[in-house]
UniProtKB/TrEMBL annotation:
Domain Myb-like: 9-61, 62-112
Official protein name in the record: Uncharacterized protein
Superkingdom per UniProt: Eukaryota
Record PANTHER family: F14D16.11-RELATED
A Gene Ontology molecular function term of the record: DNA binding
Gene Ontology cellular-component annotations: nucleus
Swiss-Prot/TrEMBL keywords: DNA-binding, Nucleus, Repeat
HTH myb-type domain boundaries: 9-61, 62-116
Pfam family, one: Myb_DNA-binding
Record's keyword annotation contains Repeat: yes
Species this protein is from: Eruca vesicaria subsp. sativa (Garden rocket)
Region described as Disordered: spans on this chain: 282-308
Localization (cell): Nucleus
Keyword Hydrolase: no
Length: 333
DNA sequence: AACTTACACAACCGCCGGAAC
DNA sequence: AGTTCCGGCGGTTGTGTAAGT
């Protein structure tokens, strides 16, 4: 069965490499090649395990490594390849000369992943994020609620509870952000591709556009085997774009039974509601019956506050929440 | 200025598959 | 056939530094 990890041996140094160690390693490999990595440390006079030496060499010291910022073209390639290959960093790296899998992996996790999230794209599936769509699915309710509120204000002087108003405000801001993103990034996201072309269409990265608008064909990276290429391409093309399109088709009437409950709003509620949004604490506010009454906790709708809680770490959500607390109420103009 | 927090990235860890013995 | 070696891979952690309070 398995062997014991080479680094189990006691006394071997770990952690950051010193310049002296780097020089020893480089000098040894330049003279003798790396040969057996396991034997290398002794031969080179390094108090490291072979694996550590190999990683240091392949990820940092190798002379053909390209250092510095990733170019937009490299970013584009990474995103496109990731949409095809997933976290196959070594495969992705083999298409980016001078870049290591480790570097690409780090860059993905620290930059590109966030970038996609901010564009409203799930970095795993490379599709529009469904958590956004869950909130979008509440659109008919919010519109109906807003209309109802206007009526009640006119005729009976009754207000919707503050939590419901806050939901609508968040939705309003979210739509603004989404539309801003789409306008700023022409042909840049699957979402844009779907809405620009045909929402039910079968466009894919493989077929036509890349994430940044340049036509690319990455089928060559999928292996020499033609069957494999075909299989992957078919898979990409056949995958239905269900979640987004079905939500966009949603009939307002389907939800007529799920209008938010209306409760009498006390004068304090608007303040409370704002505070709760800021503190991301709505879900746990069990002491406030109106907040639970007015939540969107229907069978098929994730509560909006859950959605916010889940993503509140993103600057994207922070932006939305901030706007929610500062912008004027849209339905009372 | 001191402290805390967030971020970027180098390095490590554990696992796997293939080759050698 | 079973064991060990070796290199590779992807996920995770640790550390240094910049930014914020």
């Amino acid at each position: 069965m398995g062997r014991s990890p080479c680094c189990d041996e006691n006394g071997l140094k770990k952690g950051p490499w010193t310049q002296e160690e780097d020089e020893k390693l480089i000098e040894h490999i330049q003279k003798h090649g790396h040969g057996s990595w396991r034997a290398l440390p002794k031969q080179a006079g390094l108090n490291r395990c072979g694996k550590s030496c190999r990683l240091r060499w392949t990820n940092y010291l190798r002379p053909d490594i390209k250092r510095g910022n990733f170019t937009p073209e490299e970013e584009e390639t990474i995103i496109n390849l990731h949409s095809l290959l997933g976290n196959k960093w070594s495969s992705i790296a083999s298409n980016l000369p001078g870049r290591t899998d480790n570097e690409i992996k780090n860059y993905w996790n620290t930059h590109l992943r966030k970038k996609l999230l901010q564009m409203g794209i799930d970095p795993v599936t490379h599709r529009p994020r469904t958590d956004h769509l869950n909130v979008l699915a509440a659109l008919p309710q919010l519109i109906a609620a807003a209309n109802f509120n206007s009526l009640m204000n006119l005729n009976q002087n009754v207000q919707l509870d503050a939590a419901t108003l806050a939901k609508a405000q968040i939705l309003h801001n979210m739509i603004q952000v989404l539309s801003t993103n789409n306008n700023n990034i022409p042909c840049s996201s699957p979402l844009t591709m779907q809405t620009n072309n045909n929402i039910f269409g079968q466009s894919s990265y493989l077929e036509n556009q890349s994430l940044f608008g340049q036509p690319q064909n990455f089928s060559h990276v999928l292996g020499a085997n033609q069957d494999e290429k075909l299989m992957v391409e078919n898979q990409m093309i056949d995958q239905p774009l269900d979640s987004f399109s079905s939500l966009m088709q949603m009939d307002v009437q389907d939800d007529h039974n799920s209008l938010p409950l209306l409760v009498a709003a006390s004068p304090e509620e608007p303040k409370q509601s704002q505070m709760m949004i800021k503190n991301k604490d709505v879900r746990h506010d069990t002491s406030n019956p109106s907040s639970s009454n007015s939540s969107f906790t229907q069978d098929h709708h994730q509560p909006w506050c859950d959605t916010i809680d889940d993503e509140a770490g993103d600057s994207y959500w922070k932006e939305i929440i901030e706007q929610t607390c500062t912008e004027p109420w849209p339905f009372h103009e």
